[in-house]
Amino acid sequence: MSSEIKIIGSPSPDLLNQLEKEIRSYNNLHLPEMTIENIALSIHKNNVLTGGLSARIPWDWLHIVLLWVTEEERRSGIGKSLIEKAENEAIKRCCKHAMVETFTAESKDFFIKQGYKIYGELPDFPIGFKRYYLKKQLS
Predict the structure, then answer these.
(1) 15 belongs to a structural domain
(2) Sign of the alpha-carbon torsion through 133, 65, 57, 78
(3) How many Cβ atoms are within 10 Å of 4's Cβ, its own excluded?
């Protein structure tokens, strides 16, 4: 019986879930068992979404996946508040660390002001830009 590698442009959620299940099963043999909690925070002004944060919590890490604030509300403290609340929630859930990836120098500098430190850079992702990897020790 021969094997065939298929390239799937739009994989089904079932296939993606199966792949994740299989790699987790393998990893659980070699690493502490991982469960992932998802959290989200949102802020509304006059019933309109003006900012939010989504994160995942594997093991004892808060992984900030996205942080967004409307253009009008930037520099108002909303982003800082969202991060602080997410970090406090993560600490309640026994997290000791936080991490985030970002593309722009502006957001990199924002996270550095929140106490994050760069631990890696990926140049030309996309071409002409850098992707930054930052982490923070939580109290």
Answers:
(1) no
(2) positive
(3) 4
